[in-house]
Amino acid sequence: SKFLGQLLRKDGIAWYGELACVCYNSNTRSVLEIHGAIYQKWVALGGVNWGIPNTDESPCWDGTGRFNHFNGDQATIIWSPQTGAQAIWGDIRRRWAELGWERSYLGYPTSDESNFPDGGRVNSFQRGGIYWWPDTGALDLNDVVLHYTGLVCLRETGETSGADEPYVLMGVVSPFSSAAFRSQTYSSVDSDTSRPDLIEIYRGKPNGLILEITLMENDHGDPEKFRKEIQAAMTAAHGLGTAALGLIPVVGGAIAAVVGPLIQKFIPEVAKAVNNLFGFGDDKIGSERIVLTGKDLILLARRTNNSNYKNVGYKFSTNNLRGHNANYKVYFGIVPA
Questions:
Q1: 208-226: per-residue pLDDT in tens?
Q2: 3-state secondary structure of 144
């Protein structure tokens, strides 16, 4: 027929044509059709072995997209001119439906369901992703925003100059970016006091990142010079890491399935670069490297309540940073964009 095009094969309940397929659904006792890009995606996924349609191809609410539901509304292949045909099923599909399908803030899916680090699954969308793990269920999220939120002085250095004048240097390396930041130099910091602050240090996909924190006591050095050194170190580490991995920028939440576990590969380069710093000027009180996986970032943004200590709001912190008789902790927040 003109609709099917040339008949390629008959396979039990389905007739596969060059352009389309008709398939019998015994539960609904109806013959249903699949065609075009949705048909091609369905065949690529395995045809009737993947899913039996329970709708004809139907229009989306915007009059542009098209979809077929499968397996008693347990799975969907949806198409739009901007995103092509993508498959979505299970808990991720249920969460997307709860949000309002393609009318939600996420828009249309831009990938099939695929693997995500730590045993997870993901569909990426035009404006975010839905992530799933057995122990969390489905979590929707666009980008994450990471902030430095301040420090607490548990014990000052005890130097003869009186109160401390600390500042925090922060390097951030993600699979596709690197940056360095410096807090202000806080004056007159005594034991058992805090300095709340707010500096955005990362905004982007939750693909995993390395956070390199160095707490300094300002004596005679130039804090901005040290920040630039950190920036150069992060840039070098990122360049070496990406070169070694042969990474190229790829769009979509599912890219974390590829690059997420590889963030670990950046650690030696970051460590090597940072170890070469700070030969002069100010005193280094302490440093820490925090590695956050994609799952860490998503759970911190979506499932972790904000805490507060001495007026510093946070979701996670360093361990105690000790040096020159001092003891400090540095704090961070993370929220959905």
A1: 888 999 999 988 778 888 8
A2: strand
